[in-house]
Amino acid sequence: MIHMEHLYKSFGDLEVLKDISLDVQKGEVLVIIGPSGSGKSTMLRCMNLLETPTSGSITVCGTEITAKGAPIREVRQKVGMVFQHFNLFEHMTIMKNMIYAPMKTKKIPKADAIARAHELLNRVGLDDKADVYPITLSGGQKQRVAIARALAMDPEVILFDEPTSALDPEMVSEVLDVIKELAKTGITMILVTHEMGFAKEVADRIIFMDESVIVEDAPPEEFFNHPKSDRAKKFLSKML
Ligand code: ADP
Ligand code: MG
């Protein structure tokens, strides 16, 4: 589903990704963990070209998005993204948030987009909020809408960048529960999170990043029970 080869990214003199190579299989749930500033968000953002890599290549669903003249807009439609700060359109109702991109970029007829939106809002337990504005929702509810909205584009892969970091503690579990349900559907997911219990439960594979490189790449049992590097051991001892 995603293939990265020798990816580098710098911001000026700061090298943020160093020689990252990674394959993510269809249906896989990959969790990325690591200290703040290690390059996790930048790597995720490279996957749908919100950041342009300095060098190296990325292939998404068989299309090399880093190639000149790549059909970037088409590929982006296949890669959903959920951010820490929800990024809902504040001046649109929840329903409008849900149908805007499918109608505009996928040319889905309005009636179909609305029907699908109700289905997805139901799935995250928020169909009764279709006609309200985001400001009336709690953080947890906003994030559940953001997840439903990403799904409305029928993505092949969905990227989550610390989806619960901005939430009050009592709202974390309602969002994690939605993500866990989603993981069971077999959609390919890549998640950055600091929720270690959740990572252990939901991940097929863990990637640990530190200082711009992938330090470990292992199944969750192995990573959490027998981390190989001192850096991972140190990180885990602080988190658990
Ligand atoms: P993480 O998500 O692991 O916390 P990031 O990928 O956000 O790490 O950031 C990695 C490093 O790159 C940090 O030092 C951060 O300050 C820097 N960085 C991220 N985005 C930019 C940017 N747009 N311009 C300059 N520096 C950036
Ligand atoms: Mg980040």
From TrEMBL:
Subcellular locations according to the entry: Cell membrane
A Pfam entry, by short name: ABC_tran
Membrane topology designation: Peripheral membrane protein
Regions that span the bilayer: none
Keyword ATP-binding: yes
Assigned keywords, A-Z: Amino-acid transport, ATP-binding, Cell membrane, Membrane, Nucleotide-binding, Transport
Primary localization: membrane
InterPro entries hit by this protein: AAA+_ATPase (IPR003593), ABC_ATPase_HisP-typ (IPR030679), ABC_transporter-like_ATP-bd (IPR003439), ABC_transporter-like_CS (IPR017871), MetN_ABC_transporter-like (IPR050086), P-loop_NTPase (IPR027417)
SMART domains named among the record's database cross-references: AAA (SM00382)
Gene Ontology MF terms: ATP binding
Keyword hit for Transmembrane: no
ABC transporter domain span: 2-236
Family: Belongs to the ABC transporter superfamily.
Protein name: Amino acid ABC transporter ATP-binding protein
Species for this entry: Jutongia huaianensis
